[in-house]
Specification:
ADH-like_N; single chain; alpha/beta; six-stranded parallel sheet; Rossmann fold; binds zinc ion; Quinone Oxidoreductase, Chain A, domain 1; alcohol dehydrogenase (NADP(+)); metal-binding
Length: 340
């Protein structure tokens, strides 16, 4: 289809979104076009809107947690047929030929295409992606809530697989927001002892409801110090600088502090505690398409879904403000009311 796509775009950094129409041109041979049903909002949409990472181009169409139905197929696409319901996340393409792609780590492809970098995303009536990066939504998952699985969800599910987190592990989660709330749900279902690091009493009750067995106050250094040597894995989902050395101290020997939160300032880390306890610090992006399938299957089996608030897509500016103010509980999903 090369009929115009109705979208919402910002025409400069930190500007409000406005109606924007574009004609996508011929569909690539390896591309699929989907009619957007809903699209989650991720913090990365805000970072890109604000050009925090210096890679934004305008007009900028946000949206990389898309659920929709396949409406057009390129000549060389596989896996999907017209009418299938699929999801699209941060990546919309990869080369298919580099060692990472060939080994099933397409999420690490150095030339991977990102859904909202230099191309229009899912705050729109339709969006395109390479067929590889669209995953069928399994039966048993609520399609209206599935969007946030494709960026927020996979970002926290991926390290559980990558680093072999075991059901017998004691795992800590820093930050109970869009990513952290899903981490609590996944890790609880995984079988771990789950501890949420929270900064307020209000969040404490929420964390327990979401799946944490208990909480620790991240603002209370004595709470953290008492936890020394007790965690196998600590997952940071926030993008703020923390007292990293205290978290390293909270790890057992061979423990890992892993960040999926894009902390902008350099991490301040002492080497000795890492050497003595053979501890690791690491990071990871979203997962490969196969890992996304695994996450969706696991979520359907355990009844895991993001906790969402919904806005009509036409009110995306209000929804972005709601996210910016830190009031989202826990992920916002925009329902397409822009047309087809
Ligand atoms: Zn590649
Ligand atoms: Zn995202």
């Amino acid at each position: 289809m090369s009929t115009p796509i109705k979208a919402l775009a910002a025409f400069g950094s930190k500007q409000a979104l406005q109606a924007y129409e574009y004609t996508p041109g011929p569909l690539g041979d390896d591309q699929v076009e989907i009619a957007v049903e809903s699209c989650g909002i991720c913090h990365s949409d805000l970072s890109m809107l604000d050009n925090d990472w210096g890679i934004s181009s305008y007009p900028f169409v946000p949206g990389h947690e898309v659920v929709g139905k396949v409406v057009a197929l390129g000549a060389n696409t596989k896996r999907h047929k017209i009418g299938d319901r699929v999801g699209l996340g941060w990546n919309s393409g990869s080369c298919g030929a580099c060692p990472q792609c060939l080994s099933g780590n397409q999420n690490l492809c150095p030339t991977a295409e990102s859904t909202i970098v230099g191309r229009p995303g899912g705050f729109a009536t339709r969006v395109r992606a390479q067929w590889t990066w669209l995953n069928p939504i399994p039966e048993g998952l609520d399609a209206n809530k599935a969007g946030p699985m494709f960026c927020g969800g996979i970002t926290v599910f991926n390290p559980i697989l990558q680093f072999g987190v075991k059901p017998t592990d004691r795992v800590g989660v820093i930050g109970i927001g869009g990513l952290g709330h899903l981490a609590l749900k996944f890790l609880r279902a995984w079988g771990c002892e789950v501890v949420a690091f929270t900064s307020s009493d209000a969040k404490r009750a929420e964390a327990l409801e979401l799946g944490a067995h208990r909480t620790l106050n991240s603002r209370d250094s004595s709470d953290l110090k008492r936890a020394a040597g007790s965690f196998d894995f600590i997952l940071n989902t926030t993008n703020v600088g923390l007292d990293w050395n205290t978290y390293i101290a909270a790890l057992k020997p061979k423990g890992r502090l892993h960040t999926v939160g894009a902390v902008l300032e350099p991490l301040d880390l002492a080497a000795f505690p890492m050497i003595g306890g053979q501890k690791s610090v690491s990071g990871s992006p979203i997962g490969s398409p196969a890992t996304v399938d695994t996450m969706l299957e696991f979520s359907a089996r355990h009844g895991i879904a993001p906790t969402t608030e919904t806005f009509p897509m036409s009110r995306a500016n209000d929804a972005l403000e709601h996210l910016r103010s830190g009031k989202a509980r826990y992920r916002i999903v925009l329902e397409n009311d822009l047309g087809d």
